[in-house]
Specification:
InterPro entries: Methyltransf_11 (IPR013216), SAM-dependent_MTases_sf (IPR029063). By secondary structure, the protein is an alpha/beta fold. It has one domain: 3-Layer(aba) Sandwich (Rossmann fold), CATH 3.40.50. It is built from 5 helices and 7 strands; from the N terminus they run αβαβαββαβαββ. It has a 7-stranded mixed beta sheet. α3 links the parallel β2 and β3.
Length: 197
């Protein structure tokens, strides 16, 4: 009985440890790898759809120099707007960071304006699932013709590939992130979708 209890405790600690790794370290490593691959220019126009991972918005702003700008779309949480507004002041990036409130299904953003459209842990929360296609169409609408779409999320990101192909994206990749994106274990894992026309 004691052996079984010890095994259960070890498994629980392992799951918690893997979850904490993703929460506090893994997400940074995932986005660090993405940015190394992107080589985003300092004057890029960037939209972030959903601010579920607060560190991303300020990190992108710090990578840019005016006239480069990142626009973060807050999806229905007033506290997020307040927190991110404070972070903009603290990090002195007001000249290249902007916040707007909106919906993934009707983005309050200019069409064909952004070089990069990023989203992290937001698309899985769009419901019903059929609306995710509409959210993808909105993300594509605000992108420049040669823009790049990146979605970091759990769930089946392959589901977006057929729609993106119809919308003119020939280069669509979905890459697993490994243990750095496991939310407790491989049963809830993060993937990265990167789509370029």
């Amino acid at each position: 009985m004691k052996v079984l209890l010890v095994i259960i405790i070890i498994l629980i600690l392992l799951v918690v440890g893997i979850y904490c790794n993703t929460l506090f370290r893994g997400r940074n490593l995932i986005w660090g790898q993405i940015f190394r691959e992107l080589k985003m220019p300092e004057n890029a126009q960037v939209a972030i759809l959903g601010l579920n991972y607060a560190g991303l918005f300020i990190d992108v702003a710090k990578r840019l120099k005016a006239p480069g700008k990142v626009t973060g779309v807050n999806i229905g949480n007033e506290n997020v707007t307040k927190q991110e507004s404070e972070r903009i002041k603290e990090n002195r990036v007001a000249d290249r960071a902007k916040l707007v409130d909106g919906s993934l299904l009707n983005l309050p953003l200019e069409s064909r304006h952004y070089d990069y459209v990023l989203s992290t842990f937001t698309f899985h929360s769009v419901s019903p699932a059929i609306n995710r296609g509409r959210a993808i169409q909105e993300a594509v609408r605000v992108m420049k013709p040669n823009g790049t779409l990146i979605i970091v999320d759990f769930g089946n990101l392959q589901q977006y590939r057929p729609l993106l192909n119809i919308l003119g994206f020939q280069d669509v990749r979905v890459v697993p992130t490994g243990i750095n994106g496991w939310w407790g274990g491989p049963w809830l894992k993060t993937s990265v979708l990167m789509a370029r026309r």
